[in-house]
Amino acid sequence: CMSLHPNAVLVASGQRASQGHRLTANVQVWDSRTLRTLHVLGEGELGVGILALDFSTRNNGDYLLAVDADREHLLSVWAWTKGGIFGRVATHQDHVWGAAFHPLDNNLIVTHGRGLLSVWSRRKDGIFTRTDLFKDLLPRNILSIAYTRHGDLITGDTDGLITVWSVDADGEYFIRKQFKGHDGGVSTLYLLSEGTLLSGGDKDRRVAAWDCDEDFDPILETQLPEASGGVRSVTPQRPGMNDANIYVGTIKNMILEGSLQRRFNQVVFGHSRQLWGLTINPRDGSVATAGYDKQIVCWMHNRLMWRIQAQSECVSITIHPSGSVLAVGTIDGH
């Protein structure tokens, strides 16, 4: 998992523990321009891996939360520049898929996942209290969350429902609006600066825009090409600019560029299944790869030069010393 700092330069990334060695997982905060590691957090404290990370937004990213992958899914809150934990709580026994700070209150954190959606409030003494939003409702699997500019929580679930949660005068959460956003899971939600909500579907390959200021009325939608796969993530090309240009990451490891008014162009291709073969051309330094997605791809300086599709999964690849002939072996012996 990764989280981008509010300054859009620093990144926090979380790893799994090394094989057979618990408590070797850690969180690293690094500079995206220089790739220099600035801080390493949680060594000897975090369990088998990190499930979720998020920088706070209210205090310019001074806090960082992490949820580990142990049985109790411990939630830790760090003053990361000082390397110290000032809050920790066991969250859920079941699968946690994500966690995030509330954008208007650093003491509120939401965790979501399989059949769970909870709000954690941190008191001054460091103790967390928990509010389950599905307490009197049928639990659902929450894939994605976002917040409106007024602090309402928006969730997307595996049934394609988008739900808006508000807080009443007594501090109780209630469903303000719920509507069908996608056929299949709502894999990502992103609120643009002008108040437009973008949602992406992992099954229907649709990207849709909703007007938060007009009771989430639909604005526009588009569908990605079938070869691209479903939507995994959406982000604007230039955050804060209302030019409608966005990047879309797909479940087939591609990045597309475009907008809902025009078609999307592929800017990054990636293999979508296990990658088994790699060879380097001694003549020009180009690289060829092949894998279980049946794609044979040639790269030059990180750019895709060409790709072709084999008839079955590829497990090996090599190039002749002359650099002119490529041989690929497939899983069925060809």
TrEMBL record:
Domain EML-like first beta-propeller residue range list: 1-258
Q: Name one GO molecular function term.
A: microtubule binding
Q: Where are the WD repeats?
A: 179-211
Report the leader peptide range.
none
Specify whether RNA-binding is a keyword of the entry: no
The record, for Gene3D superfamilies, names: YVTN repeat-like/Quinoprotein amine dehydrogenase
- Which terms are listed as keywords in the entry? Repeat, WD repeat
Cite the PROSITE patterns for this sequence. WD_REPEATS_2, WD_REPEATS_REGION
Give the record's GO biological process terms. microtubule cytoskeleton organization
The answer to keyword Repeat applying to this record is yes
Instruction: Give any Gene Ontology cellular component.
Output: mitotic spindle
Instruction: Cite the InterPro entries for this sequence.
Output: Beta-prop_EML_1st, Quinoprotein_ADH-like_sf, WD40/YVTN_repeat-like_dom_sf, WD40_rpt, WD_repeat_EMAP
Q: Read off the Pfam families from this record.
A: Beta-prop_EML (PF23409), WD40 (PF00400)
Protein name per UniProt = Echinoderm microtubule-associated protein-like CG42247
The species is Hirondellea gigas
